[in-house]
């Protein structure tokens, strides 16, 4: 599932994207979407950042896994269907082994959400599957 509407800016350590909250998704609940879905919006923005930079280096886009979300703070329990959200991610640290931490925000005139997400890139999902 792709929930980002579009990428609006990308730089070495940051990416900004836009989300339009849709009623046709699996998260819609009679005109609202729970704000915890913001973690997925943030994770998809991180994936877009990683994919963009892989392509810039001439490398293939590889899978990533969301390991955790910490310090999730939200000014609202839900998003409104049709609402436009600005999602921003900023790289805090990245290891050679593929572990990375991002500070993330979601904002508009009604919403302020922040979290710190930890992600891991892997060569393939088969490399982490149990034998």
Describe this structure in words.
The chain is mainly β. The chain has one domain: Roll (Thiol Ester Dehydrase, Chain A). Helices cover 15% and strands 45% of the residues. It has one helix and eight strands; from the N terminus they run E-E-E-H-E-E-E-E-E. The strands form two sheets. The protein has a six-stranded antiparallel β-sheet with strand order 1-2-6-7-8-4, covered by helices on one side. The chain has a two-stranded antiparallel ribbon with strand order 3-5. A hairpin with a 3-residue loop joins strand 1 and strand 2. It is globular and about 40 Å long. The two termini are 27 Å apart.
What topology emerges from the helices and strands here?
Elements: E1 6-10, E2 14-20, E3 32-34, H1 38-56, E4 64-74, E5 78-80, E6 84-94, E7 99-107, E8 112-121
Antiparallel strand pairs: 1-2, 2-6, 3-5, 4-8, 6-7, 7-8
Main traits of this protein?
six-stranded antiparallel β-sheet, mainly beta, 1 helix, two-stranded antiparallel sheet, 131 residues, 15% helix
Continuous helix count: 1
Residues in helix, %: 10-25%
What is the N-to-C order of secondary-structure elements (H for helix, E for strand)? EEEHEEEEE
The geometry reads as: globular
Q: Examine the secondary-structure arrangement and name the CATH architecture.
A: Roll
Number of domains: 1
CATH superfamily: Hotdog Thioesterase
Largest sheet: 6 strands, antiparallel
Q: What CATH first level would be assigned?
A: Alpha Beta
> What name is given to the CATH topology?
Thiol Ester Dehydrase, Chain A
Radius of gyration: 15 Å
């Amino acid at each position: 599932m792709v929930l980002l509407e579009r990428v609006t800016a990308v730089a070495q350590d940051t990416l900004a994207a836009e989300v339009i909250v849709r009623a046709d998704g699996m998260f819609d609940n009679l005109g609202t979407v729970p704000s915890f879905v913001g973690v997925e919006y943030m994770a998809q923005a991180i994936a877009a950042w990683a994919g963009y930079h892989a392509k810039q280096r001439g490398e293939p886009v590889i899978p990533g896994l969301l390991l955790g979300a910490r310090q999730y703070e939200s000014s609202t329990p839900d998003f409104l269907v049709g609402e436009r959200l600005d999602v921003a991610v900023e790289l805090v640290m990245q290891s050679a082994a593929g572990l990375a931490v991002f500070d993330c925000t979601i904002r508009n005139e009604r919403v302020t959400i922040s979290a710190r997400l930890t992600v891991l890139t892997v060569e393939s999902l088969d490399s982490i599957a149990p034998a």
